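Running this now, will post back.
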Amino acid sequence: MFAEPFMQRAFLAALFLAPLCSLLGVFVTARRMAFFSDTVSHAALAGVALGFWLGFGNPTLPLILVSCLIAVAVYWLKENTELLTDTIMALLLSGSVAFGIILLTALKGKQGEIQRYLFGDVLAIGPSEVWLSAILFFVVGSGTFVFLNGLSLITLEQEMAHVCGIPVRALNYAFVIVLTLAVTLTLRLLGIILVTSLLVIPPAAARSLSRNLRQQIVLSICFGLVAGIGGIALSYQLDMPSGPVIVLTSIVLFAGSIAASKLSKTTVPVSP
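Update: finished.
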């Protein structure tokens, strides 16, 4: 298993992307942005279709550009209109998916590639995507811990962050762009349909066992890493699609964390 080059790339991609999504997911869930990541991932369908329609052999660049455009549009419309955030995201999600479907009808011979982006195909990840994942992981990971206090305060209370002199608007836009990059790169790991799960399930599992934000971050990264690496290894042994197996592995970890949390609360310490 580990001797195969495609499996080595798959494990490396999971090693970088699963902890990255789990780290960002802590802030995504705390800020109730799960629907935002779902909007960005579905908007990626339009980017994939546009890339193939323009003749790109690898549609990663147009995919990222379209997803970032949708992500920025969400925040711009939120700041400049009276529309509610969920209304804006529903509008952009449905519009981008409709645009992508129209483009897909004009494509011939690309249905297999489209399926890979819809449902994930981690075994098809190339060296360039592994390098992009590694760079994003180290840059975002280091940046998150440098600005952890600011991000935490913005997540909990934006008005207080303004008072403390934290550049709230700049950090919000930076977080949105970084989240979009992580989502678009993770599409090959899980697919458009399942990518949000890696942003939501590990942080949810970690929250059951955490007493503070830092504990949740560490546990979420650990859960994401186990789900990513373990899911790929298990899918190889069972000859099943990697994306769904990774998600189901995350679900098992979530169920285990809930059980462990309930057990620790009901356990009565024995006095000496």
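The chain has twelve helices and no strands. More later if anyone needs it.
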